[in-house]
Amino acid sequence: MHRWSYERFAVEQKTLNGLVDRFLAPEIWQKSRGPLTDEERAELRETIAGLRHPRVIEELCALAATHPRADVRLTVVEGVEPFLATHPAAREFLVWLLGDDEDFVVFSAARIAGRNRVGEAYEELLHITGPAEAGLFRSTKPVGIGAAVVAKAMDGILGAQDRAARLETEREHARTGQLPRATALGEHWDYDPENLPRPVPDGMVLIPASEFVTGIGMDDVVHPLYDVDDAVPRQTRYLPDFLIDRYPVTNREYDAWAQSPQAAEHALCHPDEPEDKDHRRGIIGDARFGPDHPATGVDWFDAFAYLAHAGKRLPTELEWEKAARGENGAFYPWGDEFDPDALRWFGASFGEPQSLEHWRDTLSTFDERTPAVTTVPVGSHPKNVSPYGVADLVGNCWEWTDTNFFTRDRMKPMISGRPRTEWATAEETSVVIRGGAWTSMREQVTTYFRGKDLFTDRHNEIGFRGVIR
C-alpha cells in the first residue's frame, strides 16, 4: 500500500486512534496511572516505527508535544527517530523537546539531534551553551551534565569530532548563516527506488535512474525576450528511478475528486491550506476548458490535495525537467528545434506574435469569448512527447511543481493565520511553474524555462501532474 495513499491514511489513522486510547489520551494520566513499563515503551516505539503516512506522523507529534507525561513525550520522540531525515513534523517535535522541563527528555532529544544531524536543533542548542569558542580552553556556564550532553550533540550536528573541530564550522556558520548540507531536511521519498510499484501503474511512466543535463549554457542564450539567467549554467545532475503521470490531470479527473466527500473532509490536504477551502475549479463554468483538457483554474493547494488522495505528489522542478528533456538536455521534448505545430502555444491560440508588446496587447483581449479555443484535450499533439514517452510537457498549460522559485528547495508554505498582505509578495510563496501554456511565447515553452507564480492563484493557464518517488 502506497505510503501517501488515502487508503494508507485511513488504516494508520485507526492505528493512531488505538495509540491514543491506550497511551496518549491525557485523561488516562489524570487518573492513578503508573509510568509506562518497559514493555509498553517498546510496544509504542515499535508501533510508531510501522507508520508511514506523513499526516499521521504529524498528528502523532502534535499530540505528544503537549502531553502531560514526560515518559510519553520521550518514548514518542524515540519512536519517530527513523523519520527525522525526511519528516518536518518529527524534526519540529524534536526541537520542541529541547526546551522540555525534564532533564532526561532534553538529554535524549539532544542526543537524537546529534546522531541524526538535525540542523534545526543547532540554534536551539546554541542558546543553551553558546558557541565552541566560548568554552574551548576553560569551563563556562551553564555547567554539569546538560552542558556536556548539549555540546556533544552540537559536535554531532556539525559533523565535528570534538569542540575544537566544531570551532571552524561554527565560524563559517556565523559568517554565512549556512549549516553543512547534511544537516538539512531530506526529500520525502514515497518509496526507496527499488520498491517503486511494479508493474508501472496505468497512466504513469517510469523515468529510470541516471545522470541528466539540466539548465543551459551562456552560448545557448541568443537574444532572449525573457530573462533566462536563472537557467544558467548547464550542468549534470542525478536522480534515482521515479514515476510520473504520462499526461496532466484532466478536468474530468479533477472534478470527480473535487466534488467527492474526500475533498470535502480535507483529510489529506496540506496542513497550511486556508481553512474551509473549496477545491472546485474556479473556471468550471467555462465550456472552452473541456472535460478532457488539462485541469486548470486550480492553485498549488488544490493540486497538492488531489495528488495526496491519489497517493502521489507534485514533481520537483528537477524531476519535471528530466522527464521533459531526457538525459541529453533537449530544448523541447522532441528535440532542439521549435515546431509551432507540435504544441498548443500563443501562436496556435492567437496567431504568430509580432513583438513582445503585441503579445501583451493580444492577451489583454481575453474575455468570455476570446479566444474561441483555449486549452485542447491532452494528447492532441503526438509529437509533444519526451524521450521517455511523457506527453504534453510543454504548451497547453503550465504545470505546478513542488519547488520554491527563489530557494530551489521544496515548498514549505507557512501562511496560516497571517494576513495576505504579509505573505502575498514573500519569496516563500513563489512556486516554480514549468512548460508554458496556450498563452505562452516560444521562449517560455522550452524545457529549461523557469516560470513562477503565487501558490494561491488559480489561473486558467496552470495545471499539474503527479509523481511517485
UniProtKB/TrEMBL annotation:
InterPro entries: ARM-like, CTDL_fold, Sulfatase_Mod_Factor_Kinase, SUMF_dom, SUMF_sf. Pfam families: FGE-sulfatase. GO terms for molecular function: formylglycine-generating oxidase activity. SUPFAM superfamilies: C-type lectin-like. Residues 202-467 form the Sulfatase-modifying factor enzyme-like domain. PANTHER family: FORMYLGLYCINE-GENERATING ENZYME, SULFATASE MODIFYING FACTOR 1, 2. This is Sulfatase-modifying factor enzyme-like domain-containing protein. It comes from Streptomyces spiralis. The lineage of its organism: Bacteria, Bacillati, Actinomycetota, Actinomycetes, Kitasatosporales.
